[in-house]
Every structure is written in C-alpha cells, then in structure tokens.
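Check out one such.
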Amino acid sequence: MKHAVNERGYYGKFGGAYIPEMLYPNVEELRQNYLSIMESEDFRKEFQHLLRDYVGRPTPLYFAERLSEQYKTQVYLKREDLCHTGAHKVNNTIGQIILAKKLGKKKIIAETGAGQHGVATATVCALMGIECIVYMGEVDIARQRPNVERMRILGAEVRPAKSGSRTLKDATNEAMRHWINNPADTHYIIGSVVGPHPYPDMVAKFQAVISEEIKAQLKEKTGTEYPDYVIACVGGGSNAAGAYYHFLENENVKLLAAEAAGHGVDSGKSAATTFLGKPGILHGSLTLLMQTTDGQVTEPHSISAGLDYPGIGPMHAHLFDSKRAEFVAITDEESMQAGIRLSRAEGIIPAIESAHAIAVLEKVAFRPEDRVVISLSGRGDKDLETYIKWGGY
C-alpha cells in the first residue's frame, strides 16, 4: 500500500505526532485504542446504524446532465451536501463521538472554520447529551453567522478566537490550548485530516464511506466501480481524503485537488499550500504549510472559511509529493462563478468550498467518455450572504 499511513503515523515523509508533553497521555491513549474500537462489532453496528438512520446515508451519486453537456464529459456529483447538518463533516463526528464515549470522555471540544464541523460536532453532542465547546475565529463567526446560531441552538458554547487572523488556524490553536489544560475528561474532535497521529488516519477512515459508496453507486450506474477522475476541494482535506480513500492505490483513477488561491497564488492573499508551502510542523504533524523564511506561519486568505487554512493534512502532502494527486489553484472569483454556474445548471447551490471543486471543470480538458466524480462536500445556505454580496443579487 504505497499511500497508506505506517505504524508511526507517517504518509511517506509527512505525518507523525509532534505534541507537548502534557498532551502525550491523551494522544497515546487514542493511538493505542482507536483501531481496536473502530474494528469492534458493537462500534461498527452503532456507527453504521447512525450513518444510515441519522445522517441519511448513502448520499446520492447524481449524474449532472446539464453540467455534463456544458463540459462535454460525464459529471457525477457525490451529494454530501444532503447529509444531516448539510456537509460531509458529520460522518467523522458521528464516529468520534462514539469513540469518545467508549474512552470514557465526558466533554467535547472542537474547532471550526466554515462552521460545518462545529455544527456537526454540536449535533452529535446534543444527540449523546455531552457538553460541547466549539472554538471559531472572530472573522469566521461574522461571515458564517447562520452556522454559529445553529451551534448555539444545539446547546454548544461557541468561543471566539481573537488572535492572529482570527480564522481556522487560530481556532485550532485555541482548541489545542484548551485540551492541554483539560486532558483527563475531554476529547478533542478534530474536523479534518490534520493534527497529530492518529487523527489524520482516524478522520480519513471515518470519511472513507464517501468513496466506498461512490464505488458501489458508479458500478450500479455505469457497470464499473472506478471513475476516471475524482475531484474534491482541499483545505485541511477531510472531504478529499474520504472521496479518494478507496481509489488511492488504483493509479488509473486520477485525483484532482482544488486549493484556494484566494486573490491569486502570487497575490499575497492565498491559501494554496502546495504552490506556496514547504515542509514544517503545524498543529501536531509534519506537513506542508505556508511560512516565512524564518518559519513563522503565513496568514492564509480564502473567501471560503473552510479552506482558509495555511496547511494541508499530511496525507495530502504525501499525495502531492509523490505526484499521486494533481493540485489545481482556484481563485475566489473562479469559485464564486462556478458556484453560480452549478446553481443555474442543476438547481444546487453549493458551499463555496465545494464550488472550488466545481471550478476545476474549467481547468482540465476532459474526454467525452470520462467519468468525472466531484465531491459536493457541503450546501451553500451558510454562504448566501457571501454569494449575495459578491453577485449583487
């Protein structure tokens, strides 16, 4: 398995667990137990039950006829936006909340950028009756107001991160600090394939249900379970990890990752990590991140709160380094135009994060016979104010 994590938590040269000593017991407890818990019969039974009856899986694999005509290829949309809570994030939070219960944890903390992971965490905490604190950057609180209110209605406390750029990076820093100070009874539900091992592997395994379903649904629709292309947006990279997971070792399936280029890769306002980053340690793992020459983390920029992150998960850093995946830079403007094109071609308003993946259709010359699967990771309700402001609707 060329692209699987090894026993020390590395994908190629990226990954590992670079953590303060005070976090070691918690991370080590998780590392020693996550696989045996996830593989146990009672865990799998409860996880599958909740994915089916609570989340609403399997989500459809929809053949987008008008989009296919427009781009003269075969476009399928994996409708993660139809999951309960409106995004793929809940696949992971359902798994982690069950795992946290089995580890005896009484409190949950989380970080969020676009608010989708925060809503998904608040939802599963309400479901299980567990206290929940979500850290969110002040800037993101302002631009993702509907999701903030949803978290509060669900009973979560939303704590603003007021340092740095006041976005996802800073919310993650605050959540890490909280966990360091409250190690015994608290589980940190990380929302993406970032953080110290075993988080990247654990989150990828929970999200792998996306590609597992794509294989079965594509087989039913086309007679083959392998697409020619899988496209997903990448901030930290959880939805891409899930969409790629069961195709990683089949190199006939081309993997395309849409990164947020903001105002342009060289504009100084970008979050395109593979274009601008270099190896370094961010939030507990060795990965690619944007940084200054003296190693300080560079402030990222993206119009999409969920992609406004200065790094990528170690799995994606490895896919970039090994050239298994091709990374495509999508600007704010290109993503917004793509979001409107999808809305008017198929009647689906995507999250701006997902619109970055749609924009890749403009960048690649697909063949008419290509089966192109795009992970539509979230719905655009939360982004309506941004769409309205951008388009003057």
